[in-house]
Structure to design on (252 residues):
């Protein structure tokens, strides 16, 4: 059976969504802000805006980590009064954005999201056999 | 009555004294200007406040773009350290930097209480 990279990433995002009811949506975005795959059933969310903002935040976070001598960037979390945005570096290829409820079990979300970020990185780099 | 910046500085000093592994604690304005700071010798307060203000601005835009209401705080995790930026008021935010996870986590619990404490004392 042949599955392309895009489909494989969509499957990984669906698995992530199913892993926790705290996860409202997720997206994989390239470093230049292009949406690679997304699962964003959240109200009033513009996928293009999510892609652009995720890439911008990833770029800025990497720059800040380097300038402040914090080593290689790994993750960034943004908390608001209505939810949380989690961004995970996906190898050197892009970023995994995960949207959760405000009262989410962060430990569980991190565990599942890190696993999927690694999996997506392997798919994008071709190490997963795609 | 002591001013908000003095009250803020006093609270930051308490946190820094409690957790010596914290590298920097800075209160800054939305445009990145330092209001109060406690910074270890080898760190630059202007650099930290400028980068924190940039992160804050993008994070605020992201919460709007993602339809998630009002921004509260951002936490950056790297291989060798942690940076958090917390909104105190519309005009003041706090940035905290550390290389040590345990100290950062404990100090974080104190820092997130500051906005509420200041609100009560205003």
């Amino acid at each position: 059976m042949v599955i392309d990279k895009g489909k494989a990433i969509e499957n990984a995002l669906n698995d992530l969504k199913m892993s926790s009811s705290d996860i409202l949506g997720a997206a994989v975005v390239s470093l230049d802000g292009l949406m690679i795959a997304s699962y964003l059933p959240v109200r009033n969310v513009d996928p293009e805006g999510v892609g652009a903002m995720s890439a911008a935040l990833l770029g800025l976070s990497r720059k800040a980590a380097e300038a402040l001598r914090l080593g290689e960037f790994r993750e960034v979390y943004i908390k608001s009064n209505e939810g949380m945005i989690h961004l995970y570096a996906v190898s050197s290829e892009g970023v995994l954005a995960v949207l959760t409820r405000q009262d989410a079990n962060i430990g569980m979300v991190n565990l599942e999201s890190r696993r999927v970020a690694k999996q997506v990185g392997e798919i994008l780099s071709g190490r997963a056999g795609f | 009555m002591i001013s908000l910046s003095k009250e803020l500085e006093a609270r930051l000093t308490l946190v820094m004294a409690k957790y010596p592994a914290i590298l920097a604690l800075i209160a800054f304005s939305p445009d990145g200007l330092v209001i109060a700071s406690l910074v270890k010798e080898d760190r630059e307060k202007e650099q930290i406040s400028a980068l924190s203000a940039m992160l804050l601005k993008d994070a605020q835009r992201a919460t709007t773009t993602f339809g998630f209401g009002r921004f509260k705080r951002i936490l950056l995790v790297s291989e060798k350290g942690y940076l958090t930026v917390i909104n105190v008021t519309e005009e003041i935010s706090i940035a905290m930097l550390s290389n040590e996870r345990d100290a950062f986590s404990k100090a974080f619990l104190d820092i997130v209480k500051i906005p509420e404490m200041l609100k009560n004392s205003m």
Notes: The helical segments of chain B are 4-18, 45-65, 101-111, 114-121. The radius of gyration of chain B is 14 Å.
